[in-house]
Design brief:
Layout lengths: L4 E7 L5 H15 L6 E5 L5 H11 L8 H25 L3 E5 L2 H11 L4 H11 L7 E6 L2 H19 L11 H17 L4 E5 L4 H25 L1
Length: about 230
């Protein structure tokens, strides 16, 4: 059975990833009716262990968390998700759509926390079997627009559910500028994998750019399979 397709969505908090991953899944179900299945997951989270890690690292009450500890927790979540969800689905020929992957750790901990890229990439090789996405969709609207949406969303969720996931949104703008810069650096370093979608576009405009990029990758995948 051919290996499935691994697609990740990346971007700042408030960049619209959750909306776009749902729309992409619906589009794929219509376009690829013969696909073995479409799996949606997220990081941190997506497994029982990952959901516990998510609750810890995103909770505003988790004060004093060392940057290295934070990064280690992100990789513990990721290693579990690969073993439990992602790799089995790919082995079964499914399409996996993942909201965040190692690019997020490189951007947030490597860039935002200033730990650097080298340690992130080495941990990925050692702990994540060096699993690489086939395609990464990087959403980078303006910093101001992203943070405004993210902070407003977290306030709404907290008031409606009592769930606090605003720890990162409490960071200063300088932190997010470093995250933004690192994401831009990743896109420039890996243009064959990363599709960069910049600017304050409408939801429909972003979706159109996403499906255009995914459509190209699907055609390439089908050509590769036919050639075997």
């Amino acid at each position: 059975m051919p290996r499935g397709l691994f697609i990740t969505l990346e971007g700042l908090d408030g960049s619209g990833k959750s909306t776009q991953i749902s729309r992409l899944a619906a589009w794929l179900k219509k376009r690829e009716p013969g696909v073995q299945g479409i799996i949606l997951t997220r990081q941190p989270g997506g497994t029982e262990t990952g959901d516990r890690i998510r609750a810890l690292v995103l909770d505003s009450r988790s004060t004093g968390l060392d940057a290295m500890t934070e990064m280690a927790l992100m990789f513990a979540d990721r290693a579990q998700a690969i073993a439990e969800v992602i790799q089995p689905a790919l082995d079964e020929g499914k399409i996996v759509l993942c909201d965040r992957f190692t690019d997020s750790t490189e951007a947030y901990q490597g860039g935002g926390r200033q730990l650097g890229s080298e340690i992130v990439l080495e941990l990925h090789r050692q702990l994540c079997r060096n699993l690489q996405p086939d395609l990464t969709l990087l959403l980078l609207p303006s910093l101001e627009a992203s943070l405004t949406r993210a902070r407003r969303r977290n306030e709404r969720v907290a008031s409606e559910t009592g769930k606090d996931e605003g720890r990162f949104e409490a960071e200063k703008d300088a932190f997010y500028r470093r995250v933004h810069e690192k994401y831009t650096e990743i896109a420039a370093r890996e243009p064959n994998r990363v599709t960069l979608i910049e600017g304050d576009l409408s939801i429909d405009e972003v979706h159109e750019k996403i499906v255009a990029s995914v459509g190209v990758r699907l055609r390439e995948t089908h050509a590769e399979i036919s050639a075997k």
